[in-house]
Amino acid sequence: MGLVMRVCELREKEVINQCDCKRLGCVSDVELDMKNGCIIAIIVPGVPKLCGLFGRDTEYVIPFRCIKQVGEEIILVQVKEEDIIKKCEF
After folding, report:
1. How many Å apart are CA 90 and CA 69, to the nearest integer?
2. Composition of the chain by helix, strand, coil, percent to 5
3. If I label 25, which of 34, 42, 70, 83 is the partner at 20 to 30 A Cα–Cα?
4. 10-residue block means of pLDDT along the chain (90 residues)?
């Protein structure tokens, strides 16, 4: 894998937290710093509401600095889950 990656390639990777070995899900979006052209964070959807019928009310916002390794199929992060879970603003 090279040093360049497209956002669509990130979306195919599953995010795993090294702290508790929990699967957080797959990347759904990224936050960009438009001034510097850098990724600030990756976004992973949170746990679905009521059997997944009514969407989600939370998401994981994982700062780029917390990404420890990007592999062929997974992204390893090291975070405390309570620090990264955010309420969705709809």
Report:
1. 31
2. 15, 45, 40
3. 34
4. 80 94 94 93 83 71 95 95 79
Classify the phi-psi angles of 31: left when phi > 0, otherwise alpha if psi is within -120 to 50, otherwise beta: beta
pTM over 0.85: no
For 33, 55, 66, the CA distances from 40, given in Å and listed in that order, are 6, 25, 10
Instruction: Give 73's Cβ-side CA count (13 Å radius).
Output: 1
Q: How far apart are the first and last CA of the chain?
A: 36
pLDDT of 13 reads 94
